[in-house]
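HOLO CASE FILE
Compound: cytidine-5'-monophosphate
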Amino acid sequence: PKNFIIAIDGYSSCGKSTIAKALAKRLNFIYIDSGAMYRAITLYFLRNNIDWHDHDAVMNVLHQVHVELHLEDDYTQVLLNDEDVSEEIRLMPVSQNVSKVSAIKEVRKAMVKLQQKMGKTKNIVMDGRDIGTTVFPDAQLKVFMTAEPLIRAERRYKELKAKGEEISVREVLDNLKERDYEDTTREESPLRKADDAVILDNSHMTPEQQLEFVAKLYKNLL
Ligand code: C5P
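Model generated. Tokens follow.
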């Protein structure tokens, strides 16, 4: 039988990874965080002061960069050329630039190829922006997540605060609106709901309720 693919797309800071992770654990699927890959590349661009308008420079980076995801028990370890950057890719400098880098056609092409390879033979849950539309248009289950912007900002603010980042709710809100704007308006596979995706607005849902909702969609397909 063919491997099963669950695509979870949606706006920034909707809790996609929380649900995707929990779902993968419950179904014994492999969880893949596609955003982490774009974040790792972005970190490389920032550290090396790469001008991402320069086509040759971008192509060079794509040849030099090796991104690996390792699934640990409850989190994804992200290796950028063998260095563990799991923490650093979540901080604001990367969050503020990742939508610019991920809009570059060549970057997307390379990442999509890697992602498709990861889902070739295994049962996976992958979250991102274009998984149901571009990476796996034939995914058996597609979910499109959304929530009210202020609720998303407050959730993310709490997380960043807990990690000691000095930031206000306003800044978090501005960043996620900015990313949503860039992600939905870019030319190359913009964020949008696939026609056959099920919408999950989790503004007023607990993670447990969300998990039940998606797990039920899956069960109904079997
Ligand atoms: O999922 P996360 O918020 O970590 O993703 C960071 C950024 O990476 C997104 O804002 C988006 O610009 C980009 N991204 C993308 N396509 C994906 C996953 C992430 O363009 N499949």
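CASE NOTES: The first strand starts at residue 5 and ends at 10. Residues 12, 34-35, 38-39, 98-99, 102, 128-131, 179, 183 surround cytidine-5'-monophosphate (CB under 6 Å).
CLOSED: yes
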